[in-house]
Amino acid sequence: MGRTGRSIATTVAALFMLASCAGTGAGSGAATDDRVDSTLVTRLRSHCTDVVSDDLGEGTLCVDTGFRTDTDQFSFPNWGRSPRADMNVSVQTLVDLFGHSAVCMPGPANECILRPRTQQKLDEWNVAIGGGRCEGFAALSQRMFLRYETPTDYSPTAVTASQLERSNGRLAQSIAYWWATQFVPEVERTARESRRKSPLALVDELIRGLANGAGQTLGLYWAGTGHSVTPFAVTRRGNDFVIHTYDNNQPGVRTEIVVSGTTDTWSFRPGTVGNESAVVWSGGTGTLELTPMAVRQGPFTCPFCNDPTPDEDTTITVAGQADAPPNRVMIDAGDAGTIEQTSTGFSVGITGATVSHAKAGATSAVTVTIPSTVRSLVLELRHDHEQQSESVVSVRRAGMADIQVRNAWSTAPVGAARVTAPLLTLTPDSTRISSHRADTMVSMAGATNLASVTVARDDTLVVSAINDDSIDVSYKGTGGTSSRTIGLRPSAPMNTELVISKGLLDFWSRASTAQSVQPARTTRSAPLPPPTPTTPPTTVPTIEVTLPG
């Protein structure tokens, strides 16, 4: 039987099992911990049978879609940023996600002048993707298996996903697109809600989703690292439930996430070099998530394309360089509390604040959301390693220009008693950026103007709140202090470059450049029908009968 026929058959079988089977495999009588919902464990056991699958190792079958790592995975491993710009997150990616009118200034549909804030987000995402594009691998491999897309959409000679090559520019663009969907509100909201469920509850949801062709991706978080894999089967092994996955970090290898029926925790051995890593990831509620394909149907709402609303919460995003150890975040909001990151995770002491990790490795983007009522804080980057590294830090808050700081370095070790050298100082009326280690590049985004300046080491930049569509920018350096007023809403889109000339802050502006774009992509919202099987022509022999007379 071909792959398509196999997947349909196993999915139908799984649906039958959900309705009528109450498996009594090994370990069915094992006791559960008091913390575990025994009703849930009983329901999970009812999904499983006594059938053993040779393809899935030890244990009995609960659900199997038929996805297999020899044909349905990509043959090349996950990778980060590409030297080819068209294989990373591009202007076209933003247009495809949010639509031309959301990310581009008004103009021809085949051209795009990025809005200043979308330019900042493009820069941030292309730093974050350096940690890996696992979310894109996980989503696209599921879409191909379920026939939302086909390998022939990318190569006319490819029959299976495994036959596609990494050098395929269209494929790389698509992987980057699906990677970026993790940041859109519709997907992020669903993923966040799923993290509130326990691992066993997510296994229950996964079994039902796999049986019904929901096309889930599975996210894992451990020690400040986020990763996404493709689940395709669940088996029961004693009192544990095993999620079988395609881990895009190690193609060709079936990997397992083991969820304990006694402790309601999970463990996973990710791929690094070879078939498996010596490090075992593990966790409980809040560290696993499921995202069904239904919420990835664009176009999506753009949360950063326009000015912040007056009551919008403050968001701070820190994205690290892929080839260096990650920086850690330390935020001190005085009486409102602190938020501190270490190698084991975040300690959140500000009421109402949240933290989210991108699924793109340890150095990828971390976003801290702080209630708009907290108007004053300082942020410091810290390190728990000998090698210091740089990050890109983005700040968005009500009444202010969006600020992005590139080449931001850590200045203190993790665990330091207090913030001594803040990178950012936020007050109700201003944002102060301090450059402590090296020249720091700062951009300030308004409605139609993207202003930028390089802050020399030991110098500071203070950016005021928006007043009458303008900001006051003050530069303090060895030559003293100099200020300028910069308009954020000129009649035509432009880029403004601020420079220090003879100790004074000066600037010059140029018109923004348009880029060619295609119409926004449309994604299939329903699977394609199975391909019509091809059979060789059959010649039916004939017998000539001659009747007497």
Can you put this structure into words, describing what you see?
The chain has 549 residues and is α+β, with helices and mostly antiparallel strands. The protein folds into 3 domains: 3-71 and 197-296, no CATH class; 85-185, no CATH class; 314-515, no CATH class. Helices cover 18% and strands 30% of the residues. The chain has 9 helices and 29 strands. The protein has helices at 3-20, 38-46, 91-98, 100-103, 116-128, 134-145, 169-180, 185-194, 199-211, and strands at 60-64, 111-112, 217-222, 225-237, 240-246, 254-260, 266-268, 281-283, 288-291, 314-320, 328-332, 338-342, 345-348, 354-357, 366-370, 377-383, 390-396, 402-409, 412-413, 424-426, 430-434, 440-445, 449-455, 460-464, 470-477, 480-487, 494-501, 504-511, 515-516. A hairpin with a 3-residue loop joins strand 22 and strand 23. The radius of gyration is 27 Å and the shape is globular. The two termini are 52 Å apart. 44% of the residues are buried.
Total domains, how many?
A: 3
Indicate the multimeric state. single chain
Radius of gyration: 27 Å
Task: Tell me about the largest β-sheet.
Answer: 10 strands, mixed
The CA-CA distance between the termini, in Å, is: 52 Å
Residue share in helices?
10-25%
